[in-house]
């Protein structure tokens, strides 16, 4: 006999396990909030904008493929910015006590929509340190690119500054809590259905019919103790009345 699950049964399962689902969802939200606010270290970001121009000689040499040349130069410069040739000098001048690899992990370099603008971003638990590293990296790159590429075509358009009340870019507690609630809700619903699936106790006549594959011919109703006592009192009262009428006659 094939078993089918109706929509009503699904809602009944959710209703029966509602407290479990709500508890898991709230627990996930609370844990996420505690971790986001009190455990994870806030990370701040500072950015500086660099403009990379082509030199006159480069424009004359690559005039037919100017767009491709610009992109190639930007990609080359992006790699140079994060190379030990630049970062070792930055770490030394700022006395950061970091290797080039450790400093590299804090820096992100990206071109602005394929243009000649390069956005140099630094992430650090200290907003002042992030701005200091970003500005120093741009300055060292502007100076060292002259010897590395034999060009003088880099200009710093804007320096990284620290706001009065800087906000961390991560973690984002509200977003983390929202995600945790969704995950907790899904986990709660999954656990509710899993518990229902493994619950093989017989609760009603439908369960018996499902288990044995036989139709139900009749059901013996259960009478609560309170109702049973009430019926007994009525019966005793009726018997007393009948006995009194018999004696009177």
TrEMBL record:
Membrane-protein topology:
Multi-pass membrane protein
Q: Does the keyword Disulfide bond apply?
A: no
Keyword Membrane attached? yes
Locate the transmembrane regions by residue number. Answer: 20-44, 174-195
- Alphabetic keyword roster: Cell membrane, Membrane, Transmembrane, Transmembrane helix
* Subcellular location(s) of the protein: Cell membrane
Q: Primary place of residence?
A: membrane
User: Which superkingdom is the protein from?
Assistant: Bacteria
One matching Pfam family is GNVR
Task: Give the matching InterPro entries.
Answer: Bact_polysacc_biosynth/exp (IPR050445), GNVR (IPR032807), LPS_length_determ_N (IPR003856)
Tyrosine-protein kinase G-rich domain residues are 142-194
Domain called Polysaccharide chain length determinant N-terminal: residue spans = 3-94
Q: Which family does it belong to?
A: Belongs to the CpsC/CapA family.
Q: Which PANTHER family match?
A: FERRIC ENTEROBACTIN TRANSPORT PROTEIN FEPE, TYROSINE-PROTEIN KINASE
Supply the name of the protein.
Capsular polysaccharide biosynthesis protein
| Protein species of origin | Neobacillus kokaensis
Gene name as annotated: capA
């Amino acid at each position: 006999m094939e078993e089918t699950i109706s929509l009503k049964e699904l809602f009944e399962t959710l209703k029966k396990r509602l407290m479990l689902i709500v508890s898991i969802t709230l627990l996930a939200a609370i844990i996420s909030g505690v971790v986001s606010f009190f455990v994870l270290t806030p990370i701040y970001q500072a950015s500086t904008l660099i403009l990379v121009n082509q030199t006159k000689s480069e424009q004359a040499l690559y005039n037919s493929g100017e767009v491709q040349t610009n992109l190639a130069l930007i990609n080359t410069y992006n790699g140079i910015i994060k190379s030990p040739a630049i970062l070792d000098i930055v770490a030394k001048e700022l006395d950061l006590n970091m290797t080039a690899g450790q400093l590299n992990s804090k820096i992100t370099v990206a071109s602005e929509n394929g243009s000649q603008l390069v956005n140099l971003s630094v992430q650090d638990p200290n907003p002042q340190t992030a701005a200091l590293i970003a500005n120093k990296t741009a300055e060292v790159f502007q100076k060292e690119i002259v010897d590395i590429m034999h060009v003088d075509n880099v200009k710093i358009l804007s320096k990284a500054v620290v706001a009065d009340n800087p906000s961390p870019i991560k973690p984002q507690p509200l977003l983390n809590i929202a995600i945790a609630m969704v995950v907790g809700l899904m986990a709660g619903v999954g656990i509710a259905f899993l518990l229902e699936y493994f619950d093989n106790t017989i609760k009603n006549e439908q369960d018996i019919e499902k288990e044995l594959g036989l139709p139900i011919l009749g059901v013996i109703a259960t009478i609560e103790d309170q109702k049973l006592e009430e019926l007994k009192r009525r019966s005793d009262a009726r018997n007393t009345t009948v006995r009194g009428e018999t004696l009177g006659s």
